[in-house]
């Protein structure tokens, strides 16, 4: 079966990217699908969920700024301080408009079909709920929006012959696809992009080379990881330094673009990292007039986990059997919050 040209992208994909439509993985995906007009299905529950997530993230961003100003009032004096002479509600709306604009730009590259509730089989959905069948499960019972979305996609498929690609990190969507031969599951934009290139033997050659030895790639990812932002959850005014990847628990590669002697490889990895943290211990602080006066400062090495993704550009040999050089690494995520305590063992 060929790769479908009709696709559905679940909100979990946008969540992973933090709704940053300039992320390296999304840019690579846009370059590939831009060569052909794909059809994107947008069920109404998904549209509503994305809009709600954008609103929530805009509100959370403003709250983070307000919290930072309360902890460090002097930053209000910055000339470019986002809340300087600006109502928080206005700033929230501005952020929401920016993200929505980028989201609409992403949608514009597709032949967009919005799916309503015509053809949604409510009785079947309730049976799936009773039987705890995907997208319902013991882990997630209240997945009615996903159930409505799946039902509308299936109705569209039956009315319009041809397979549909379901791109989602949600394993319940994978279970749904396993039950329907015309639904093809892809866990990421990168896996879908790679599938479009699967007819090119060079893709297999590069993947074989990566499987043989990817030490240089892991080292390059770590070097770029060290340059990202790290914050201490226990005290946002705390210091975090010397972060580095301690261990790759897992890493997957997908070839998303090929040139004459270069290629772009998307990666998804689960990592354990360490960082030196130092921050005031507010649990033992003395309070006077509502102002906290910390007595102790906590300091040490913390260990935490993170999910990272991005794009690696490589130079390759003429027969694609050797990775000659890592030319650059872009990580989609820009910062991480360290939730663990110093010297806490994972």
Summarize it.
The protein is 38% helix and 30% strand.
Can you tell me about this structure?
This protein is an alpha/beta fold. It has two domains: 6-195; 201-338, no CATH class. Helix content is 38%, strand content 30%. It has helices at 11-16, 24-33, 44-71, 88-107, 122-131, 144-159, 171-179, 189-196, 201-212, 215-225, and strands at 6-9, 39-43, 111-115, 164-167, 183-186, 229-232, 239-258, 262-280, 286-288, 291-293, 297-316, 323-331, 335-338. It has a five-stranded parallel β-sheet. Strands 7-8-11-12 form a four-stranded antiparallel β-sheet. Helix 3 (44-71) packs antiparallel against helix 4. The chain is globular, with a radius of gyration of 23 Å. The mean pLDDT is 85.
Topology record:
Elements lengths: L5 E4 L1 H6 L7 H10 L5 E5 H28 L16 H20 L3 E5 L6 H10 L12 H16 L4 E4 L3 H9 L3 E4 L2 H8 L4 H12 L2 H11 L3 E4 L6 E20 L3 E19 L5 E3 L2 E3 L3 E20 L6 E9 L3 E4 L8
Parallel strand pairs: 1-2, 1-4, 2-3, 4-5, 6-13
Antiparallel strand pairs: 7-8, 8-11, 9-10, 11-12
Helix pairs in contact: 2-8, 3-4
Strand order of the largest sheet: 3-2-1-4-5
What is the quaternary state of this protein? single chain
Q: What summary fits the major beta sheet?
A: 5 strands, parallel
Uncertain stretches: none
Q: In terms of structural class, how would the helical and strand content be classed?
A: alpha/beta
Mean residue pLDDT: 85
Number of domains: 2
Number of separate strands:
13
Q: What share of residues are in beta strands?
A: 25-35%
Radius of gyration: 23 Å
- First-to-last CA distance: 43 Å
Helix content: 25-40%
Shape: globular
Question: Count the helices. How many?
Answer: 10
Order of helices and strands: EHHEHHEHHEHEHHHEEEEEEEE
């Amino acid at each position: 079966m060929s790769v479908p040209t009709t696709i559905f992208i679940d909100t979990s994909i946008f969540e992973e990217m933090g709704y940053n439509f300039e992320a390296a993985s999304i840019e690579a995906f846009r370059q590939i699908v831009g060569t052909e007009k794909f059809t994107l299905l947008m069920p109404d529950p998904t549209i509503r969920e994305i809009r709600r997530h954008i609103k929530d993230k805009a509100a959370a961003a403003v709250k983070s700024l307000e919290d930072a100003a309360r902890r460090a009032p002097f930053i209000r004096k910055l000339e470019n301080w986002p809340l300087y002479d600006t109502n928080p509600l206005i700033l929230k709306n501005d952020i929401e408009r920016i993200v929505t604009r980028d989201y609409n730009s992403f949608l514009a590259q597709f032949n967009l079909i919005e799916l309503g509730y015509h053809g949604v089989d409510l009785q079947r959905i309730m049976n799936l709920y009773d039987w705890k069948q995907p997208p319902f499960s013991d882990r997630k019972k209240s997945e009615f929006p996903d159930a409505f979305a799946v039902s509308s996609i299936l109705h569209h498929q039956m009315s319009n012959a041809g397979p549909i690609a379901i791109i989602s990190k949600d394993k319940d969507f994978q279970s749904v696809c396993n039950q329907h031969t015309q639904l093809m599951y892809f866990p990421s934009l990168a896996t879908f992009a790679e599938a479009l290139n699967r007819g090119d033997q060079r893709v297999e050659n590069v993947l074989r080379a990566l499987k043989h030895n990817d030490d240089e790639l892991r080292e390059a990812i770590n070097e770029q990881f060290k340059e990202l932002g790290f914050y201490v959850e226990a005290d946002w005014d705390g210091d975090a330094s010397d972060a580095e990847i301690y261990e790759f628990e897992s890493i997957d590669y997908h070839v998303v673009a090929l040139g004459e002697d270069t290629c772009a490889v998307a990666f998804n990895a689960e990592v354990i990292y360490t960082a030196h943290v130092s921050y005031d211990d507010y649990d033992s602080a003395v309070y006077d007039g509502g102002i906290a006066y910390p007595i102790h400062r906590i300091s040490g090495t913390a260990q935490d986990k993170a999910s990272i993704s991005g794009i690696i550009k490589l130079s390759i040999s003429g027969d694609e059997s050797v990775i000659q050089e890592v030319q650059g690494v872009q990580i989609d995520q820009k910062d991480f919050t360290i939730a663990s305590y110093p010297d806490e063992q994972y």
